[in-house]
Design brief:
6-stranded mixed sheet, globular, 2 domains, alpha/beta, 4-stranded parallel sheet, 15 helices
Length: 388
């Protein structure tokens, strides 16, 4: 099911075999008892990109390339830089200026990449990169690279092995550049053809409202076209307005009978805190899966007795600033445009937005500043509410 790479060219850091967690608290909150998370953030560079990058970087090494390059919102750059370093290759990273998590940028810097922040968005970086590889002997390692897609299939293969080849009813994936959903869907179709599974799970894709070109493609244009947009969401890993793999993702969506949903910034922040309360944690983009599940449940698309697997694409520490700002209550203070309803705002009483804000506030756990006094600590302990 995977391309062959000669052993002498294989670049690997022990990626894959990531854990599958049961989300007990999230299960109770959503009414879906058999709710699991396949955590791809437990890969070597802390994101799902590693499973594809091991194949793509090995392919570059096999072909004798000295330079590899990618445009990135953060996770791809971290992964590519690490695998290039392990393979004794040089790496070039193009990232949008000011629109990336510093936790992710620090990785590519530490792994020795030539990192260029361009005064444009992710799609502008892709445009420059495509022009570059036509003029210089540089190997492109974005998700349009077919080896990336092949490697990322392993998440689905591992998942089914962990479930003893019992296909779940639903697999829910974040939607950014749409390479991951395409890869997982391709693996599912191949496993069905090989009779490793007897039926297909429904593969559903969730986007942020501020970066929803695929959602609009499906719901406004019936899948006939994708209209690029200027993406704006605090979930930086999926802040992509012109996804390269949308046609592949559309084929997978139709083949599996899945759905596409969009979620707000408040819904993402709330879902991220809920996953964290299960002791797991993830980056903001991963949390769209739980937020989307709630909407799919409300619509009746997901039934209470069904098995659902959320694909968590990145580790909590990929974007620690998001987490800290959320729990301090000022997450949206610097970027009101990214949120239809600021957590600190006062929406109309009784509206769904108000209820989401109230729920989000209940999940905030800001540090409590006290005098260095035992009595003060005991008083804080006694006064703490029990989290449901």
């Amino acid at each position: 099911m995977l391309p062959h790479i000669p052993e002498e060219h294989a670049i690997t850091m022990g990626e894959g075999n990531t854990p599958l967690y049961h989300l007990a608290r999230c299960a109770r909150a959503t009414g879906v008892e058999r709710l699991f998370a396949k955590h791809q953030g437990m890969n070597p560079t802390a994101s799902f990109k590693d499973t594809g990058m091991t194949f793509a970087a090995s392919s570059a090494h096999q072909r004798g390339f000295r330079w590899v390059a990618c445009a990135s919102t953060g996770n791809t750059s971290a992964s590519m830089a690490a695998y290039a370093a392990r393979g004794d290759m040089l790496s070039l990273v193009l990232i949008p200026d000011g629109k990336i998590s510093w936790g992710k940028l620090s990785q590519s810097l530490d792994y020795g990449a030539l990192t260029c922040q361009l005064r444009t968005d992710f799609d502008g970086c892709v445009k420059i990169l495509n022009e570059l590889v036509r003029q210089k002997p540089v190997y492109l390692l974005n998700s349009v690279n077919p080896y990336r897609i092949e490697g990322q299939k392993t998440a689905a293969i591992e998942l089914l092995e962990q479930l003893e080849w019992e296909a779940p009813d639903h697999i829910i994936v974040p939607g950014g550049n749409l390479g991951n959903s395409s890869a997982i869907g391709k693996a599912l179709l191949e496993m069905l053809e090989l009779k490793l599974i007897s039926r297909l799970p429904k593969l559903s894709i969730i986007q942020a409202e501020g970066a929803n070109p695929f959602y609009r493609c499906v719901h406004e244009f019936g899948g006939s076209k994708l209209v690029p947009m200027t993406a704006d969401t605090l979930a930086t890993a999926i802040r992509i307005g012109n996804p390269a793999s949308w046609k592949k993702a559309l084929r997978v969506l139709r083949a599996t009978g899945g759905e596409v949903e969009q979620v707000s910034e408040v819904e993402i922040a709330e879902a991220k805190a809920e996953i964290g309360a299960d002791g797991i944690g993830c980056e903001p983009a991963s949390a769209v899966t739980l937020a989307g599940l709630k909407k799919l449940r409300a619509r009746g698309f997901v039934k209470p007795g069904e098995m659902v697997v959320l694909i968590l694409t990145g580790h909590l520490l990929k974007d620690p600033d998001f987490t800290i700002k959320f729990h301090r209550g000022d997450l949206f203070a610097e970027n009101q445009a990214s949120s239809s309803v600021p957590i600190s705002g006062a929406p109309t009483a009784g509206t769904p937005d108000e209820r989401r804000v109230t729920r989000a506030k209940s999940l905030q756990r800001a540090p409590v500043v006290l005098d260095a006094d035992l009595g003060a600590v005991i008083a804080a302990l006694d006064g703490a509410e029990t989290t449901p």
